[in-house]
Amino acid sequence: MYGNDFSAPNSAPDEAPGGLLGEVEAAEAELRAAAARGRRGGPAPDEDLAAYFAEVVDAEQKIEPRDWMPDAYRRTLIRQIAQHAHSEIIGMQPEGNWISRAPSLKRKAILLAKVQDEAGHGLYLYAAAETLGISRDELVQLLLDGRQKYSSIFNYPTLSWADVGAIGWLVDGAAIVNQVPLCRCSYGPYARAMIRVCKEESFHQRQGYEILHTLAHGTPEQHAMAQDAVDRWWYPSLAMFGPPDGDSTHSTQSMAWKIKRFSNDDLRQRFVDMCVQQAEILGVRIPDDDLRWNDERQAYDYTQPDYDELMRVISGDGPCNRERMAHRRAAHADGSWVREAAAAYAAKRTNKEKVAA
Amino acid sequence: MRARRGLSHTHVGSLHAPDAELALRNARDLYTRRQEGVSIWVVPAGAITASSPDEKDAFFDPAADKVYRHPTFYEVPDGVAHL
């Protein structure tokens, strides 16, 4: 069973999962352990709130919604969680594009479930952001007005069915590498949402890998299709980790606050190192002539993605930015009658109950 | 949410809904996509009264100096069984 952050603590699975899923479980266990260590309660009446906040964070305890927190910590979290939520919602589009054209009923059912999961992840994250004192309506409006961003990766088009596989393997894979450390974020509601999200993401990554594996071991045309998708998604996936450490604006403070645990470049390296062996088994080539093992560093040397392109896409000039936003605005506007009808129905029933009473 | 028969309900998350019936349906869609539960309760956030963590020390103080409420407080002589 996936996604249950409420199972009995001693109901250990038969085999401890390794890899990233294992790390998610470890983060969950750590969360429980930190809670069990149970330091004293709130700050003393005359205690400096900032010092208390720092002490809680340093002790690897979670900050909860009603705790005092620095304004900048709150703002950073709202920005990051909202951007993350928006990414889940916009992220439904590139794959949703293929639901009606999935090659079999099984693939269609799986893809539907996956896209539904993305909507769910968006909602978990909006709920986490709302604990910081902003409403979901405000956040949705910020997205629609273009004042908050979503991940640049979703501004690339899905040209073939193999792209659905490449998104699962590379895009969801990169997202998991990025997100697993967030399961240990100092803000409780975000950490708990991420544990749930990461467990569900691992299904996404595996279904993508399976699609690519099937294609790569099919006809020469199917193999070429898989290779083409990997060629197009590799560098945008590397760019998902953000600008190189030297140019990253938010990193240092976020690390100190334990919102972020590893630097962009560390996570990117980790992703590359994982993918090499997975690509070999897939039977596809990672499109990088300079990709080779570096014995000294015990890691792969690789070609950096084009960060100028990343900046262009982030600032609105990617292949699909306008299309994605236009679609989201239209969907929001087209859905307004559903929201209004539900509210009207609820009001009518409340009235009836009042009259009956 | 009650995860399985025999366990107590545990908080799993928040959602938006115009009324209780839709809240239940939304909760099913959002929090039980993988059979995570056998029973759901929904409560409007406004109906919850919370103790603030800021009050924690004072509010929960009365329990702090009553260690004798725990069985481990008592010394049991060697050899006593069934106690």
TrEMBL record, chain A:
Alphabetized Pfam families for the sequence: PaaA_PaaC
Top-rank taxon: Bacteria
Sequence segments annotated as region (Disordered): 1-22
Record InterPro entries: Aromatic_CoA_ox/epox, Ferritin-like, Ferritin-like_SF, PaaA, PaaA_PaaC
PANTHER family per the UniProt record, alphabetical: 1,2-PHENYLACETYL-COA EPOXIDASE, SUBUNIT A (PTHR30458:SF2), PHENYLACETIC ACID DEGRADATION PROTEIN PAA (PTHR30458)
Protein name (record): 1,2-phenylacetyl-CoA epoxidase subunit PaaA
The gene coding this protein: paaA
